[in-house]
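Forwarding the complex inputs:
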Amino acid sequence: MEKRTLFTNKGLGIALVVPQVLLIFTFFYWPAGQALYWAFTLERPWGGGNEWVGTSNFTQLLGDPVYWNSILTSLIFAFSATVLAMGVALTMALLVDRELRGFRVYRTVLVWPYAIAAPALGVAFRFILAPEAGFMAYLNHAFPGLWNPALNGAQAMIAIVIAYVWKYIGYNFIFFLAALQAIPKSLIEAAAMDGSGLLRRIRDIQLPLLTPTIFFLVVINLTDSFTDSFGIVDLMTAGGPNRATELMVYKIFFDGFKGLDYSGAAAQSIILMLLVIALTVFQFRFLERRVHYK
Amino acid sequence: MAEVAIRGVHKSYNKVPTVHGVDLSIADGEFVVLLGPSGCGKSTLLRMIAGLEEITAGEIAIDGTVVNALEPRERGCAMVFQNYALYPHMTVAENIGYALKVAGTRKPERRARVAAVAQSLGIAELLDRKPGTLSGGQRQRVAIGRAMIREPKVFLFDEPLSNLDAKLRAQMRIEIRRLHQRLGVTSVFVTHDQVEAMTLADRLVVLNHGRIEQIGTPTEVYRRPASRFVAGFIGAPAMNFLTGTLAADGRIAIGSGAGTPVTIGVRPDEIQLLDAPLKGTLDFEIELVEELGTGQVFYGRSGEMEMTVMRNGGGEAALPRSGQRLFLKIPMTCVHLFEVESGRRIDLPPSRLAAE
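Prediction (whole assembly, two chains):
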């Protein structure tokens, strides 16, 4: 039986819940509700009221190939960033799992990138991946025209994925390593006695037992890659070149605050929210079935 | 089926030696129990045979092949772990059949062999269950089944019964013994439980601080312990140790006196309790009585020395109570002598014991 504390005093229970509910209401439901309202109105850019326009904000967006390009770009970014950030982190964690000396040190060091604000990270990678300076300049000198994210859309996408992945590898690594450490060593030894080699053990024993962690990280990584990518895009590519890195979250900011299309931006945030919710529901419905909880 | 030869095996962790030169040869089909207190290196030794620990020095050969450099899977050993180590995400059938699956055995054959093993262990109806839903005894059987199915040359048991309750432990002990009689596979069993060790072993290896104290049949080890450590470790309640002397003419005396100082060991159940003093008896004041049902254990002192005495039967006559004074007679034939410094056994023809 699961142990739960039951409050006999109803007032205390409510008092404990209220701060959390207030926070969520103030910072999520209220703004989300506002955005939902704006999405069905046309807001005047200089203030002075708005008028109800029904779903025309949405029909306009969904009829716009530029917006579809933004959705596609976001999906490409989200999936490649999630796969890379998790894949690299898992590989590192599997390598580290056996040798544990100094675990505390790199556990701390590796989580630092996650604490760096996206804009700072964006600036750093803008310099690191700049075609005219640093490491990439040497490559460009050896192979002229090899790397220029300012001109090449695919390379711009690679650049923001690298920056984003760098931030999340450490975060994923910590979770993977903790989960690997929680697998009893005797299970691995039993599999070794059963004749299973290193890779086979990873596939048959460790990965299945990691599925709760993998599932959790897929949800977090996918969701964050839709919302947490703004700073990196803004500072590294500003959506360019030629909208090649115009992710949905960046387009919301750009259309809303630069283009002063508040209503269109509100409609976009609603679509983004629905997309993330749909992805999460999908994961819980179809991926979670393959998760082995204890 | 194979013999196992352990020659001069050492093990160090970070330069701290834990096993200091163990030599042991295990015959084909023999059931050997490694017994010792925790930290004596018995599990380490077992894991070195299995290939789960590197061998720092010396060599281990299974069936004539030196296995130092071989992977665990190439050694032909199967192991039953203390916490069973069942794969929690696989069913019982998948757990038992995993070794076959890895070896590439085809599915129909795999299924037939899993079924046969499960049948022989009485767990056939559990095959579709996950380990998490099984009781301790059932998990133990699955773990044994997983080891059996590979038809290994050597069975290794790493304290497999220590997580079971007393009743189940006794039952599983008998089953393991029966299994060994049926399969006749060379087995090495690690335990810190002397009853388990005595009942299971063809031969007993007593380890202490990474060294072998004694190798012998359970009877030999009990009757003629090679050192004070073995004498104190085996037998319950534990053997009494008295300080005494051994004179040049072979006379043994309790307490200080002329002659070489020795440690005198007597098992509690071999001391006779008397109501009246005789020549050579010791005073005994009872402090505590334990009723075992089949007998009683008396804890008390004789002068300065703490003594434990066990009496079988009894009950008709009034039970001696704490505070009561009785007299102990220590029969000559039951006395074990040990060197004070090294703790090693001194063998002497029986002679007279002179009490002070």
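The first strand of chain A starts at residue 41 and ends at 43.
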